[in-house]
Amino acid sequence: MAQRTGNIWIDGNDAAREGTWLYWTGEPLGFSDWYPGQPNHRDADCLEMYRSFDYRWDDYACSGRRFFICESRY
Ligand SMILES: [Ca+2]
Ligand SMILES: [Ca+2]
């Protein structure tokens, strides 16, 4: 990767039920790419691609400031 950006929010959370990761629509993710040892925070309910984990998944507090990736229809 020529240029690496910071940590990035992607769609996914376990806010409704700890340990059950869903899209914000409520649908199951159907895929995961957790970094070894993650998710590791009960209080962290949002899903990020973490730079130090080579952009694999990390659970993190939703109040954190991150870049984000969205899907749009047009
Ligand atoms: Ca959690
Ligand atoms: Ca974590």
CATH topology: Mannose-Binding Protein A, Chain A
The ordered string of helix (H) and strand (E) elements is EEEE
Classified in CATH, the superfamily is Mannose-Binding Protein A, subunit A
Number of strands: 4
> How much is the radius of gyration in Å?
12 Å
Helix content: under 10%
**What count of helical segments does DSSP give?**
0
Name the hetero compounds present. Answer: calcium ion
Overall mean pLDDT score? 92
| Straight-line distance between termini | 28 Å
Keywords:
74 residues, binds calcium ion, Mannose-Binding Protein A, Chain A, 0% helix, C-type_lectin/snaclec_domain, globular, CTDL_fold
Describe the protein's architecture and organization.
By secondary structure, this protein is mostly beta strands. It has a single domain (1-74), classed as Mannose-Binding Protein A, subunit A (Mannose-Binding Protein A, Chain A). It is built from no helices and 4 strands. It has a 4-stranded mixed β-sheet with strand order 3-2-1-4, with no helix packed on it. It is globular and about 35 Å long. The termini are far apart. The structure holds calcium ion (CA) (2 copies).
Summarize this structure briefly.
The protein is mainly β. 0% of the residues lie in helices and 24% in strands.
Topology:
Blueprint: E1 8-13, E2 46-50, E3 56-60, E4 67-68
Parallel strand pairs: 1-4
Antiparallel strand pairs: 1-2, 2-3
